[in-house]
Amino acid sequence: MRRLVLASLFVSAVAVAGPEAPIIGGTDATSGQYPNVVGVVIEAGDSVSLCTGTLNTNQWVMTAGHCVTPGAETGTSSQQDLTDALIIYVNALEIFPNPPAGNAGIRAIASMPDPMFDINNLEAGHDRGISELATLVPGITPVALNFDESAAKPGRAVTQVGYGDNDGQADSGAGTLRTVGQSLVDCSAIGLQSSDNDRLLCYNQ
Q1: 6 close to 156: Cβ distance less than 8 angstroms
Q2: Backbone angles phi and psi of 181, in degrees to 5
C-alpha cells in the first residue's frame, strides 16, 4: 500500500500530481492530456532526482517538500544550490532518462519547502513545497488550490498523475508521465490511524 502526503488539502479536483509515488497499474499519459502537470528534475553534479509538480499559477509550481529541501536526498547543500539545480519540464511525456527533444525546460529562480516540513519525519505531513519559474508558462490553465476538505475524504475517486515508478517492487520506470484512477481510503485501511486522514491522502493500492 502506498500513500501520498496531503498538501494541506491542496488537492486538484482534476488530478493529484504525485511526486515520487508509484503509478502502479497505470497507463502512459497522452500529449496534452494533463498540461498543468510538470516534470521536476534536480540536477546536482552527478545526482539526478525526479519529482512531479503542478502549475498553480503561470509561474509557480507546487511539488513535494522533499523535492525542494536541500540535503543528501537532492544532492544540494543550500536552498540556492537546490534552486539552481531545478529544471521544470512543461508538456513533456518523458523527462528521464531521455529529456524531451527540443524542450530545454524552465529554470527556477526561487524554491522553498513548507517551513513546518521535516524530511526526517515524513509521517508528520507538510510535505509540500513551491518553486518560482524564471519565465511565465503561456497557454496553460493552472490548477487552482482546493481548500474544500470534502474533496479529500475517503471514498473520493481521484486520478493520480506523475512521473514516478510504475513498479513498486523493482522501483523502476520513473521518468514517464503516467496516470491511474484510484480511490481515497481511510488511512486505517493501510495500517495507519483514522486520525491521519486529516493530513495524509491514503490510496487503495
Answers
A1: no
A2: -85, 135
Residues in CB range of 54: below 8 A, 6 or more apart? 12, 15, 17, 36, 37, 38, 61, 62, 63, 143
Burial category of 141 from C-beta neighbours within 10 Å (exposed 0-12, middle 13-18, buried 19 and up): exposed
Closest by CA position to 64, among listed 13, 9, 114, 12: 114
Cβ(122)–Cβ(21) under 8 Å? no
pTM of the predicted model, to two decimals?
0.83
How far CA 77 is from CA of 41, 72, 73, 144, in Å, comes to 16, 8, 10, 32
Give dist(CA 155, CA 142) in Å, integer: 26
SS3 46: coil
Euclidean distance between CA atoms 10 and 17, whole angstroms: 11
Q: What is the pLDDT of residues 170-200, one digit of tens each?
A: 567 789 999 998 899 998 998 888 888 777 7
| Rounded alpha-carbon distances, angstroms, from residue 83 to 143, 167, 179 | 22, 29, 27
| pLDDT score, position 190 | 86
